[in-house]
Design goal:
It is built from 38 helices and 14 strands. The chain has about 850 residues and is of the alpha/beta class.
Length: about 850
């Protein structure tokens, strides 16, 4: 009986404890539901003192710990609760929530799956599992989870919302929009959905619709900082930059520690060319979030534009240290190395970016450009074609691919490519760099249109420095020459004597040099020729323009135009009251900020002025300046020494291979076939082009051995000297020989040209008129071939022309640099007088 008595007594105590615990638990739940967490927690702790394995108290204590953001304690408590009741779906579901907060995503997914195994019909658990899978980037599995949730609860707006986010990650943009629309149908005041929907519409480039969706989110939730920031991004893409900045600033006002909004605002300010303000915003983002890799990267881009390359590199390296898989930072770092001419370092960075992000079209393009500089043209083409496959509408890539194929004389699809290129330009597409177009199509209309597209896109007018106040008249006009090519480059070889001959009683001349050139004889000569020679490589476009203004430059002469390493942005900022396009780029700049273009009557007939945005300055002879102090060739080569046969007529063309079109090559091959034992001597530009040209010759019935390729010669004078082993220079169309024609004529080699309608196609004719040999100008390919054959087969006629050329070099205007200098100074003076008289730019005609 004693044993029974004792047993009864223990049961009574146990029952009392259970009853007390249950009562306390119910009170605790009431407190917790009312948000009185401390009171609820105190009651649960009393329960655990009475009954340490009480599932409910452990479970709900864990939930309170979660609500108090003590996630580790929550994990311990709910884990312990599950030990005592392993079949409770709610505990597993809540445990999943805690584990997700602890970033233990795989464990969270496992806990949700336990809950689903116990209770498969709980829609919220399927939704929460989808959210974890979304963070794990298991997007297909996430979509499946959301769809299970929707199957259980067809009006589950949250599940439709998150399914849309997952579909967006899967690039199923239309399906994502449909999912968001369904969420909105069930829950019209769901601000998050409108925000997410805006993000997908932005991906679809439906930017106005995206802005409208963000506006809806903001209307529902006026303090929705993320929606303001996202709207700013869409407005930035729409080039509504001031509105974008205002949207970012509103996001920041709502959420002062919103680092992403600060760096987004910095990006928009960069596009507005407010570079100091952009830096300040990125700085602020970094102060808020010191490990914000994207902010370092974005700041580095601004430093790069400011030409502060060391600071840019430091930021890119910091971004990569914080985020080792940051493909964009590697790409940006590669761009700095490319600009510094450290091509191998650039390649290493581009290749790393591509390894991290195999669909990175821009990195493929820049990798291709670097490979081109290393003369690896075929590898470069493969990069461009990969980029085109990834992103066929990427700006200017279509033309780049055609241009490099022409450089390699790969003419497989040239006719269809050019037909497509014409259509793209006419449709205002950003299809080709205007310089690349010059060698492809002889069309003034297309040349102008492509330049206008390029100028509007890349170099819009920049008003940050304001207008230039009218300056009082000065007796000495101050000329600024701007170039990346003050070194061993054709532009400098032509212009050196001009700078030396400028009348210092009437002109001050200043060089603004932004190219990388080692010390050399020509570089030293140029430095000495100017009153001031300023290296501005480390200055931004805006800083260079301001420096030019500070130096009171009256006329800024752009010697590069849209050629390699150009800095057109300087002129978009207005470096001087008068701005001139001269020599480097053979066509209109298509920009309102260039006032004049220097030309001549051969280059631009009056009826063609409508195809030039600039007013034309007509010099009386040729627009091209020359250096009459160049030494005449003294060295006498023998034919065999330069790879030529001992006998036979030698046609030559030392133009770049991208100027050789199938049409002109057809002419050349017909000429070779008609002239026995003749050869064609070409520039050895790259081995792929040489091999392709040999194959093309064979296809046209000409033995490949009749094409001879001239190896590069370091000494310029020796290159001039070897011209004398040729008999006749055959020009190209639509891009004539320019400096190469001048070289040939200076060396005593007649140049036969065919004139077209564009500037680039009329330069050789301009030179021939200035040296009084107009009979070497033809107007169609038939006459071109006929005259080539006539000169090859009539040695008397050719000798007569060579004799006249020899005499005319010193008696005609082409190589009379003193006369040319007077004429261009007269042009500058007339430009300046119009400015001082408050007259707008107009066509100027300089009399002989």
């Amino acid at each position: 009986m004693a044993n029974i008595g004792i047993s009864v007594s223990h049961c009574t105590v146990a029952n009392n404890t259970l009853a007390q615990a249950q009562q306390l638990f119910e009170q605790g739940l009431a407190f917790q539901q009312n948000g009185q967490l401390e009171q609820a927690q105190a009651l649960y702790e009393k329960i655990l003192n009475l009954q340490p394995n009480h599932f409910g108290a452990l479970h709900y204590c864990g939930l309170i710990a979660y609500q108090q953001k003590n996630y580790q304690l929550a994990n311990e408590l709910i884990s312990k609760a599950i030990q005592f009741n392993p079949n409770n779906a709610a505990a597993y579901s809540n445990h999943g929530i805690v584990l997700k907060a602890l970033k233990q995503l795989d464990a969270a997914a496992a806990s949700y799956r336990h809950a689903i195994a116990i209770n498969p019909n709980h829609a919220a658990v399927h939704n929460n599992l989808g959210n974890v899978l979304l963070e794990l980037k298991q997007f297909d599995a996430a979509v499946s989870s959301y769809e299970r949730a929707i199957a259980i609860k067809p009006d589950y707006a949250e599940a439709y919302n998150y399914r849309g986010v997952a579909l967006q990650e899967l690039k199923q943009f239309d399906a994502a929009v449909a999912s968001f629309d369904t969420a909105i149908a069930f829950k019209p005041d769901y601000a998050d959905v409108y925000n997410n929907r805006g993000n997908v519409l932005k991906e679809l480039k439906q930017l106005d619709a995206a802005v409208a969706s963000y506006n809806q989110a903001i209307a529902i939730m006026p303090d929705f900082a993320e929606a303001y920031s996202n709207r700013g991004n869409a407005l930035q893409e729409l080039k509504r930059l001031e509105a974008a900045v205002a949207s970012f600033e509103r996001a920041i006002a709502i959420m002062p520690n919103f680092a992403q909004a600060y760096t987004n605002c910095g990006n928009a300010l960069k596009e507005l060319k407010q570079l100091d303000a952009a830096i300040a915003n990125h700085d602020h983002a970094i102060r808020i979030q010191p490990d914000f890799a994207e902010a370092y990267h974005n700041r580095g881009i601004v430093f790069h534009e400011l030409k502060q390359v060391d600071a840019a590199l430091a930021d890119y390296e910091r971004a990569i240290a914080l985020k080792p898989d940051f493909a964009e930072a590697y790409h940006s770092r590669g761009m700095v190395f490319y600009e510094l001419k450290q091509f191998n370092a650039a390649l290493a960075n581009y290749e790393r970016a591509i390894a991290l992000k195999p669909d990175f079209a821009e990195a493929y393009i820049d990798n291709g450009a670097t490979l081109q500089n290393l003369n690896k043209h075929n590898d470069a083409l493969q990069c461009y074609e990969k980029a085109f496959k990834i992103k066929p509408d990427i700006e200017y890539l279509y033309g780049t691919i055609i241009h490099i194929k022409m450089k390699m004389c790969d003419w497989g699809k040239v006719e269809s490519n050019l037909a497509e290129l014409k259509n793209k330009i006419l449709l205002n597409e950003k299809a080709i760099n205007p310089f690349d177009l010059s060698s492809l199509l002889d069309s003034l209309e297309l040349q102008k249109k492509s330049s206008e597209i390029f100028a509007h896109h890349r170099y819009p007018d920049n008003y940050l420095l304001g207008s230039i106040c009218k300056r009082p008249f000065r007796e000495k006009i101050r000329i600024g020459y701007f170039s990346a090519d003050f070194g061993q480059h054709p532009v400098s070889l032509l212009t050196a004597e001009l700078y030396e001959r400028h009348d210092r009683s009437k002109f001050d001349i200043v060089a603004f040099s932004f190219g990388y050139h080692p010390l050399s004889e020509i570089r030293n000569r140029l430095s000495a020729a100017f009153d001031k020679f300023i290296d501005v490589r480390d200055k931004s476009d805006q800083e260079v323009a301001q420096l030019s203004r500070d130096l009171q430059i009256d006329i800024a002469v752009d010697l590069g135009g849209y050629t390699k390493d150009c800095r057109t942005g300087i002129f978009a900022c207005r470096a001087a009251p008068i701005q001139v396009n001269y020599l480097g780029f053979p066509g209109t700049m298509g920009a309102g900020f260039i006032d004049y273009m220097i030309a001549d009557n051969t280059l631009i007939k009056p009826q063609f002025q409508i195809y030039y945005n600039e007013k034309i300055v007509y010099l009386p002879n040729s627009y091209m300046v020359n250096d009459s102090q160049r030494k005449l060739p003294e060295k006498q080569f023998k034919r065999q020494a330069v790879g030529l046969p001992a006998t036979g007529f030698v046609f030559c063309c030392f133009n770049n291979t991208y100027k050789i079109t199938p049409a002109i090559f057809d002419c050349w091959m017909r000429i070779l076939k008609a002239v026995d034992s003749s050869v064609l001597w070409l520039k050895d530009d790259n081995y792929i082009a040489s091999n392709n040209l040999k194959k093309q010759a064979e296809l046209r019935g000409v033995c490949a051995d009749r094409l001879i390729f001239a190896k590069p010669i370091k000494e310029y004078s020796e290159h001039l000297a070897r011209h004398r082993q040729a008999d006749l220079f055959l020009d190209t169309l639509p891009y004539n020989a320019h400096t190469t024609a001048s070289d040939a004529l200076w060396a005593g080699l007649p140049v036969l040209t065919c004139i077209g309608e564009t500037f680039a196609s009329r330069v050789a004719a301009s030179l021939l008129n200035a040296i009084h040999l107009p009979e070497l100008i033809t107007y169609n390919f038939e006459d071109y071939e006929h005259l080539a054959l006539k000169l090859a087969m009539n040695s008397t006629k050719l000798t007569e022309i060579k004799t006249r050329l020899e005499d005319n070099r010193f008696t005609t205007p082409l190589f009379n640099t003193r006369l040319f200098t007077k004429h261009i100074e007269t042009a500058y003076t007339q430009m300046y007088k119009r400015y001082q008289a408050d007259l707008p730019p107009d066509h100027i005609y300089i009399s002989p």
